[in-house]
Amino acid sequence: MMKKKAIFFDIDSTLYAHRMHEIPLSAQQTLWKLKKQGHYVAIATSRCRYEIANLPKFFREFPFDGYIFDGGALAIVNGNVIHAQPIALETVQKLVQLSRKLDFVLRYSTFDEDYYDRRVSHKVRDSFFHLYLNMPLVKEYENEETFNLLAYVHDKKHRMAIHELEDEFLLTKHSDEVYEITAKGVDKSVGVNAACSYWQIPLQDTICVGDGVNDVRMLEMAGIGIAMGNGDERAKAAADMICPDIEENGIQQAFEALGMLEEEKE
């Protein structure tokens, strides 16, 4: 019998293909096989809880064993919060004040919702909707407990101002215009570690799959780190293996290469 593993999947561009807004059938079948074999199958995403609401039916109905949300700041297993590490209130307040002073937009996520702290441009709205098929509400920040921030920094002065505060949080640069912010020291590997401790699964028995720069630490920490062929070069450099693109049945091919999709003999 195969040793039980804890397997964590990023969502965007790993399981979920934005071009078709679908999870490839081969990936769906792979997840079911892994689950049937008794492995823990979990999600590790920078999305907040609200941002998974409009994902395809398969995602909403599949019995995932755990969810790592907000880039590692929040971990939920069997409906129970096993890890929660929000950004320090003082830090969020500083960033909100900075955004108002320099006129850039913040998206902040709480336990139940995500919000823009002000009205946003059509460019930002269209980009967000393309990824998530939903839209944050517009509401001024009122000292809510915040797990994840996205800063839309379209000007050099915005970027420089955020970098001046960087010793207070973990900054992930997705592009020159989008920065992700979590509590200091918090990335997906923190949530993965919390789930594995809860399940009593050693880290050497973990498999993590991702494509982005925010997956790097998770891929480095995993017993086996798998980067998508369509992924960021930094994710590929951190991984133990690189599978084909998401739309080329990459998930299925990765686990076939690991010998984990073969039917066990009675």
UniProtKB/TrEMBL annotation:
GO cellular component, as recorded: cytosol
Organism, as annotated: Amedibacillus dolichus
Annotated protein name in UniProt: Cof-type HAD-IIB family hydrolase
Superkingdom of source: Bacteria
GO terms for MF: magnesium ion binding; phosphatase activity
Matching PANTHER family: PHOSPHATASE YKRA-RELATED (PTHR10000:SF25), PHOSPHOSERINE PHOSPHATASE (PTHR10000)
Annotated keywords: Hydrolase
Metal-binding found in the keyword field: no
